[in-house]
What we know:
Elements: H1 2-6, H2 8-11, E1 21-24, H3 28-38, E2 43-46, H4 51-55, E3 70-73, E4 79-83, H5 91-105
Parallel strand pairs: 1-2
Antiparallel strand pairs: 3-4
Amino acid sequence: MHAYRDQYAQLFKDGQDVVLIAISADPVDTLAAWAHDDQFQFLLASDADLSVGRAYGALSPRAPVTNRNLFVVGPDGKIAYRAVPFREIDPTAYTELGAALEKLTSPQP
């Protein structure tokens, strides 16, 4: 989450034409405190019942643990990019994410 925060302006164009929603199984109050304390510029949503995790195949075989997955949903509502699992410590993962976002947010000829 800190990498998203630190690269928010570059990767997510400061939220212009992109909405970033991080979904976690943590309770709402925990996420709200974390977002406030760490000054996240994006939304955090609670999936306490794991329904979103189930729908996107993010549950680990060791449920109720969730995998760190990343999905980019295009304006048409379809998944335009997926990283399953997302390699958050690999810098190339952010390069790939940036390219996927650029493709979606750039004017098409």
